[in-house]
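Team,

Forwarding the record for the chain on the shared tracking sheet. I've put the sequence and predicted structure together so nobody has to dig through attachments.
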Amino acid sequence: MTDLAIPAPVPRKAAQNQPEQQPPGWQPLLRRFGLRVTAASVLVLDALQDLGHATPEQVYAQAQPGLPGLSLSTVYRTLEVLAEYQMVTHTHLEQPSATYMLADHADHADHADHAHLVCRGCRAVFELDHDVATVLAGQISHTHGFDVDIGHLSLFGRCSDCTTSDLASEHADHQQSGIRA
């Protein structure tokens, strides 16, 4: 077991004009995995709960106000340990660092493994429909004998808004060139 010793958990500060929310029960989940409940682990999990997908830097920015002594290196170590115990997963989108998200556990089933669609135009990230990802993974397995980890799957392309914008821009370019001819 990796030691993440930090002083007792500090509750998150409530956002301005919003009531304080109860923690989603990280303590039993951390204990179930044999991990100590620390302020860093609770705040990192809270940040991922709030952010959905986040880089370590984004997790740090979200969690640091709840624990002023928190360092970015502690966030990185905490994420590594939580990933090792499969409490969080990560994938590589377009940022230099990995993007983390909560893993699927009975306590937090709304964060199931999912694939990502990353737009190279606007850089938006979308969740790929689970059924589509499962079919794709099945086809890859059948054709190549390769077992795909859907939680780490990221497909890059262009979203419908960027594609529509590209087509409109291309159409305008063709009209302008037709006027000049």
